[in-house]
Amino acid sequence: MKKLLTILALASAATFVHAQGTIILQQGNAAFLVSTNAALIGQGIGPTAKTALGFDYAVLLATYGGPAPSSNPLDGAWTGAVLTGVNFSVTAGGISGQGGGGGAVTPGWGAPAATYTDGTEKYFMIVGWSSNLGTTWATVAANMASGWATPWGPNNAFFGTSAIGFGFSGGGPFSLPANTLFNPTAAMPGGLSSGFQLMAIVPEPTTIALAGLGGLSLLLFRRRK
Fold first, then answer.
1. H/E stretch holding 97
2. What residue segments make up the domains of the chain, in order of their start?
3. Which of 161, 184, 218, 223 sits at a 20 to 30 Å CA gap from 79?
């Protein structure tokens, strides 16, 4: 009985380790800049800067095989964020923070068992946004689903996604090195070959109309007084 429990424990541990892959998200190379399409406060259009607003990122995963999921991050094929929140920032137009030289843990993304010809391969997409939209992907996704109805204050708000990539994580039972999501390699054949742009958000017409009605009612109220 003890022998059986030991075997089960080892099998469970191996499965757990296999599922805990690591990746490198940090990238400051000029070829992979993250830019905005509109001017930030104190900064023109172009690569983002750490001092203007603040930016967060999430890495979304989807099962590999068959057609790639759509580029809509709300597509049900994307399983959710593996890295997200305030640990990420933008500096010199690149992504930095957690996910640096040592890589960051990505639950559910297994490393190959021995070589890069087997194991768990995933589609991935990086989602980026200005922090005034929220500090977690769940908050931003809900805001996006509502047509950006949630107000974000006087500053511009930005949102954007990378191209869809695919590949393997590192880590795993053989302690494979963490793989960067940028630059295609044998380990990450679908690595991103460029940066991406965060677009200034314009609320849905319905939201704008409601805001306009609210302003009109205030004007009428003032005139009556």
1. strand 94-97
2. 2-224
3. 184
